[in-house]
Amino acid sequence: MLAALTALAAGTAFADAAEREAKRLDSVVVVADRATTATKTDTRLIETPQAISVITAEQAADRGVQNLQETLRYSAGAYSEAYGLDTRSDGSLVRGFSPVSFLDGMTRQIGSSLVPRPEVYTMERAELLRGPSSMLYGAGGSGGVFNLVSKRPQFQRAGEVGLSYGTNQRRQLQFDLTGPLNEAGTVAGRIVGVARDAQQQTDRMPDDRLVLAPSLTWRISDATQLTFLGLLQKDESGSSQQFLPVVSTLRAAPGRRLPNHRLLGEPDADRLDSRQASATVLFEHAFSDALRFNSSLRYAKSRTDFTEIYPDVYSNPGNPFLDAEGRVLPRSAYINNPRIDTLTADNNVQIDFATGALRHTVLAGVDYLRFRQTAMTGFGATTPIDAYAPVYGHFVLPGLAPQPRQDQTQVGVYVQDQIRWGERVTAVLGARRDRARTQVGDQPRIEDYATSYRAGLIVDAGRGFSPYLSYSESFLPIGSLDFFSQPFKPQQGRQYEMGVKWQPRDQTLVTLAVYDIREKNRQTNDPENVLNSVQTGEVSSRGVELEATHTLANDFYVTASYSYNEAEVTRSNFAPEVDRQLADVPKELASVWGVKQFDWGDSGRIRLGAGVRHVGSTLSIGGNGSLRTPGYTLADALVSFDLPQWSFTLNLTNLADKQYYAPCRAFGDCFTGNGRNVTGTVTYRF
Fold it and tell me: Any keyword Lipoprotein (predicted)?
């Protein structure tokens, strides 16, 4: 395969120069109109009875996106950076809940497992399906599905090489080559790579990465296709979040505020290094125009070495300092070195047929997940630090101890029927049965069963308007035992959603959605036993979302969104949080982003873009009272000069370099936000 990809690179580099010079630049249209995540079939967004957002690779590049969670900055209902600048994971909230992370339609991350973050340059697009989605995807919470779609080989030769330099000494080389590999045009390859040498906003923390993603597609026949996707990734980084004390940030006295870049750990100890390798096989076969078979299989293996020394602000949130002057903070050290193996598979059959006036697209499938994790961990107190004049190099790390091996398997069987009546009415009906097994060390095996349903109806009412109704469910196995060795029941969610989609023309789509989500079986403290948890917790999330994308005359596009969300705790054994705003969830989100193109001579163009995003205030309630974190508004910009083969791009995020927190918590710490980032990129396309 390496030889084939080498040939691809050579062939791409020496393509017909005359053809390249004559090539006209593509228009500014980058708005998607189809997605597979909502139904696992290629369905138009206007025919999907549920709110879904699609972020293309072009949109992500225009907005200066540097990681997966940042792709959601301009999507309705999504609090993209719910825990600020955090290199440990892509922590977003959708309608008040964490979405499940998927890659190419298969689970990427189980719960809060520490796995390497994906590289956005390897993505073709990202799709966000909002709300419970267990009918198609199995175990997951009420936030929905966030599916990343990898770049695939193309049978038209193309390639690009880019160099970037930016804030925090960010230096990055990236390349993307694709095209046919044989004269018959039945085999195509692609290779995507990233090499980054950078620092973080946090002092003395690296952000280095190497990624290589080769892929191969073989058109075995007109009816059969096989695709291989490979990934090798190496990260050398550290935790960006330092859990700065509230009393030295949000509630700091004049002259006492710590800068967001302050490191309270140790540069010689703190690390977040990871290695990951995965192989994915995608198989498609059409027995006829009416019968298709699809199979997906992925094996992924990762190892992470995570060490963090952080301030202990939790023992005494109001005054965490050890000295009378309020300078020296106690610290703790935490080590976690997980080794994770994941095998996922999804096999389904799609059948198209008619019963009288009704046209059916039936999808029936079986999916499988096997997750295994072993880990060595350590935790303990270490040396204190002067937060205002830190001196590094004096620390003690705890010893390591093996943790019980975690094994989880899930098997699901699902059936879905997309029913089309005439040209205006589409209904979606689906059901699924899951079995999930969890084994932790020598503890008794936990076995959970769940049945999930889904129903939706959307009607083309004319003039581009399509009102819709939908119902969906979710379940999430807890996978642990209570104090009395009884297994917890799966967490369950259900959603009612109604709305209207308006598409007066191909390059315009407006979605207005109103939803009501209720999630039960959440764990809360047992009032009769401090060592136990009980499942009496319940959360309600109700809201309205508006999202619009519009392209005008092929030289201007705009996306805008507004979200209002009332997420509240309706039942809990912790009385202060009942009927209060759900922790860390803002009630309001709003954003607008636009790009305008101007022609430059016969073959060039200038593109100017600007965006504004607003996040409302959040609330945190703890044993020491409540704490509200103010909302914030940030501005982003794009300047790009494009020629047929060259692009010179400047991306700017958080233009005013606003220092903000996302969020601060009543437990005593603050999650810092991302400061101003300026990145210049030169790209050569061939």
Answer: no
